[in-house]
Amino acid sequence: MDDERRERIRYYAFAAFVGVLLLLNWLGIVKTIFGIDTAIPITLLAGYKTFYNSISALMERRISADIALCIAVIAALSVGQYLAAAEAMFIVLVGEGLESYAAGRTAAAIQRFVEQMPRRARLIRDGQEHDVDAASLLPGDLILVRAGERLPADGTIVSGFSAIDESSISGEPLPR
After folding, report:
1. Which residues neighbour 38 within 8 Å (Cβ) at sequence distance 6 or greater?
2. What is the pLDDT of residues 125-159, one digit of tens each?
3. By the 8 A CB rule, do 47 and 95 touch?
């Protein structure tokens, strides 16, 4: 298992742990510890990263959405709405997890697409066919692509006719 996946699983486990703590507070099973409403430490636990990012942004004189969230959470805590503050931080925690999951899947799909690209191309120069590295192609180069082959570069069909399978890019199942 790669480090990125392990980190994502750790994040999901942390979010689940915070969710269970929040649920226990909401159900009234574990409402207070040492006379303190458990929603307060849950808020701080769930939001430590958001609070840190907000303080960092303020130190760098940047405005971010995290700052608005932190102001709202601090306001909720100051008026005694501890559960609302914890819920807000938990929602952000879950949202960041979903965003991370989607970004990871997108990066993996792009990586798979790049790995499928051909590394070699048939360059036509002075009427002769030359096998060259696809990365060395320049705009205006004329290449030969045979039926069923993947395109090594973006371009325009100059002669002949063909249907090109663009499904890996467009998601459409039929070639155009």
Report:
1. 21, 24, 25, 30, 31, 32
2. 888 888 888 888 888 888 888 877 777 877 777 88
3. no
Ranges in the chain, pLDDT < 50: none
| Beta strands 120-125 and 36-37, pairing class | unpaired
Q: Where are the beta strands (DSSP E) in 30-170?
A: 32-33, 36-37, 120-125, 128-133, 142-144
Closest by Cα among 105, 136, 133 to 118: 133
pLDDT of residue 174: 60
- Exposure pattern of 39-65 as b/e (b: 16+ CB <10 Å)? bbebbebbbeebbebbeebeeeeeeee
pLDDT given for residue 175 in this prediction: 54
The answer to whether 31 and 37 are in contact (CB under 8 A) is yes
Q: Say which DSSP state 30 is in.
A: S
CA atoms within 13 A on the CB side of 44: 6
pLDDT of residue 138: 85
SS3 167: helix
Cβ of 123: how many Cβ atoms within 10 Å? 20
Question: In Å, what is the CA distance from 161 to each residue of 123, 139, 156?
Answer: 18, 21, 11
> How many other C-beta atoms are found inside a 10 Å radius of the C-beta of residue 105?
10
